[in-house]
Amino acid sequence: MTTAVNRPSKIPGSRSLTLVTMNEPTAAADAAATDPAVTRVTATVVLRPQSVLLTFFGDYVLDGAVLVAAGSVIDVLGRVGIGEHAARATLSRMVHRDLLHREARGRRAYFGPTEHGRRVMLDGRSRVQEGDIVTRQWDGTWTVVGFSMPESWQRERHDLRSRLQWAGFGMVQAGLWVAPRRVELAGVLEDSQLEEYVRAFEAAPTGPTEPTRLVAEAYDLPSLAARYTAFIERWMPYDGDGPGPVDAVSRRVVLTTDWLQVVRDDPRLPLEFLPADWPAVQAEMLFRRINGRLRRTAEREMRQRLDVIPAVVPAAATPAEA
Q1: 70-118 tens-digit pLDDT
Q2: Is residue 212 part of a domain?
Q3: Whole-angstrom Cα distance, residue 311 to residue 322?
Q4: What percent of the chain has pLDDT over 90?
Q5: Are residue 233 and residue 289 in the same domain, yes or no?
Q6: Is 158 found in the same domain as 129?
Q7: For the segment 152-171, what is each residue's pLDDT rounded down to a tens digit?
Q8: Is residue 43 part of a domain?
Q9: Which residues contact 69 (CB under 8 A, 6 or more apart)?
Q10: Are residues 79 and 170 in the same domain?
Q11: I need a surface site. Which of 19, 99, 140, 300 has the fewest CB within 10 A?
Q12: Could you tell me whether strands 170-173 and 66-69 are parallel, antiparallel, or unpaired per DSSP bridges?
């Protein structure tokens, strides 16, 4: 028999929080196990446990000033087919990587985002929720980045390339990257200590360089289009819920994680450089429709199920302590 304990919730918009014993079966867990969308997508797409947790914390924890019990995290990951051992290992790695911090309360461990983790989660959430997947109104600005560093700096070179790709740049040739928009490099290079090896300009292509060809050479458009087409094929059967039981929590976590893995390094190119049948627009509309139908139910169930405690905010230092 499941024991429920009510306490004031720290998640905005909720009056109370029901603590559910994590090792007992629940109707929601049964629904998760048979949700056809979760079963279909997790069988065809590799959802990295860290990506799932970043989605979970970003959607349900980030704005609540709370810490979440390990048992709740394991329950959420279990709903999408990630076992307890992998869940605990992922939590440990995320603490080591300064994405989460751990706090012990009695015999229970609770987790919440660090300041670095908050920035990562906010960035991911903005890519999912804000703006269009393509640039519909472009002012013609290009940002050009060149860099040169010692040949032995393979790790630093990889880090810089990853940062540039995340910011929407494409590589034209070795050491030369472009983005068809204005990009503030200060944020891209933050904490990298590579500023002195980088040169950045705002420019525009001129003959014999043709902009459409430049975009085609700098970005792998066929691969990007294939990702959006595959997303549409995975989720179109569930546009309108489709047959079978729906577990809003697990389905939304899988949907959002899947979508973020598709769009995470999309450069959001100007529409004029893309084919007329570019599938990203249709995929984005599909994601927003399904997410919109699931959101309220998923948030309500999370408020009822999560075992949380208030996050302790360090007190400001007094003049004597400063």
Answers
A1: 999 999 999 899 999 999 999 999 999 999 999 998 889 999 999 999 9
A2: no
A3: 23
A4: 56
A5: yes
A6: no
A7: 899 998 999 999 998 899 99
A8: yes
A9: 108, 109, 110, 306, 307, 308, 309
A10: no
A11: 140
A12: unpaired
What's the number of CA atoms in the CB half-sphere (13 Å) around residue 211? 16
DSSP 80: T
Q: Which residue's entry shows tokens 């050491």?
A: 175
Burial (CB < 10 A; 0-12, 13-18, 19+), residue 210, is exposed
Q: What is the DSSP letter of 135?
A: B
| Cβ-contact 199, 145 below 8 angstroms | yes
* Boundary of a domain, candidates 154, 173, 203: 203
Q: Is residue 316 domain-resident?
A: yes
Q: With the CA atoms of 169, 230, 238 and 31 taken in that order, what torsion angle do they form, in degrees rounded to the nearest 10?
A: -90
Can you tell me the distance from the alpha carbon of 36 to that of 234, in angstroms, rounded to the nearest whole number?
A: 11
Q: What dihedral angle (degrees, nearest 10) is formed by the CA atoms of 265, 270, 275, 280? A: 40
SS3 28: helix
Q: Which domain holds residue 154?
A: 142-203
Choose among 134, 153, 126, 155: nearest CA to 62.
Answer: 126
Taking residue 92's Cβ as centre, other Cβ atoms within 10 Å add up to 12
Cα distance from N-terminal residue to C-terminal residue, the chain: 53
Cα Rg, the chain, nearest whole Å: 22
In a domain, 211, yes or no: no
